[in-house]
Amino acid sequence: MTIRKIPLIIGGEKVQSATDTWLDVLNPATQEVVAQVPMATPQEVAAAVASAKQAFKTWSQVSLTNRMRIMVRFQELVREHTSEIAELITLEHGKTLPDAEGEVGRALEAVENACAITRLQLGEMANNSANGVDTYTLNKPLGVGVGITAFNFPVMLPAFMFPPAIACGNTFVLKPSEQDPSSTIRFVELALEAGIPAGVINVVHGGPEVVDALCEHQDVKAVSFIGSTHVGTHVYNHASAHGKRAQAMMGAKNHMVIMPDANKDRAINDLLGSAFGAAGQRCMANPVTILVGEARNWLPEIAERAKALKVGPGSQRDADLGPVVSPQAKARILRLLDSGVEQGAELLVDGRNCVVEGYEQGNFVGPTMFSKVTTDMDIYTQEIFGPALCVLEAETLDDAIDIINTNPNGNGTSIFTSSGWYAHKFENEIDVGQVGINVPIPVPVAYFSFTGSRGSKLGDLGPNGKQVISFWTQTKSVTARWFEPDHQDGSEVHTTISLK
Hints:
single chain; 500 residues; alpha/beta; Aldehyde Dehydrogenase, Chain A, domain 1; Aldehyde Dehydrogenase, Chain A, domain 2; six-stranded mixed sheet; 22 strands; globular; Ald_DH_C; methylmalonate-semialdehyde dehydrogenase (acylating, NAD) activity; Aldehyde_DH_dom
């Protein structure tokens, strides 16, 4: 059987890498090798940046209207190919097909936000701001942008980056995860089919050497990253040290607070969906719940519903969660789960020895749930990024807020309650950038910005919404005065700073 080779995309063409280093791309449910991805050579990385730099000369001059029309066509193509893209996500990532289809839907939201570029990239103007002087701003593209994305959303995360960047008139080099690149490549192919000119969007694959080369390249103007805190901190610091504008959306430890007045069934079901969906491999999952007051009595029912969740390959539509992405990820998750037992947490649901019939080689971890968790345990302080739920208890909402605000991360948090007073108090006193009220995964729709905070984010601006336009443009201020053709005033020298 011939193994499919993942291409680079440089100058609008699919290019087979000249590298001698190829990594296997595995189906996480079977360990079958489904493709091989190249670690791009330094020459190929340089060629991708050079292609983007050359394309910027003409693409930056394309009108807002024509850029918008390409984005509209792009979103149409993505919508038409949703099933195909979702199947590629499931094949290489492992998430269930319904979840993969949901990811494509969230990616579409981001592309649709880029379709609004004729509204979002407007400047400001003050007519006659001084004596006969007009002042106005122009939001101009930066040049070559770079995007570096994690494995857990191989289509949605690139959609947060290159569609708005190129809609603003920039050109782009994307470095997707090498663990599940096929859906990303198909996504970019559809962008080219929509009419994005050659060189405007390029794709290279690789590890730390490729990332560093992109961050260091003199022609790269901005770097966007979404992934782990360890890598994101390096990317942000390295890119910033080389004079790039940078943003990094990173790790999390999100908390869901359940008040005793919450709708019980809805709160429990949404908690389990948030904690265990995508096998917990979401930076916006809620791997911690705080049961407040009498809601602590719901603990046995939460555990029983967790045990009832079905684990299976992502291609089985009735599976609630699929495998984790790799054997290495599974081993790391199991080490952390073992530490929870060793450090004194009570294991209510044990998914450590999960085996799926017919898929014995798969990277499966079943739903796992701990109670009696304390904030000094490794299962609390570290991002498990697997199907594990830690339960803490609090007497009051104030106690719950204190727990969350003490945690260094600030990606997202949720509260489930029927009380508007509790909800209002929570949204005002919680020190977290994205808040859900009876919403388990508080990622806003794409015409609002992604606003993670504190230890979960580096940089002032986030993806999506208006902030993404600010990140991918630079503001040029123009102060202009026009005189009549026969104007005579100007014989005097004015040494003051005022505009006269």
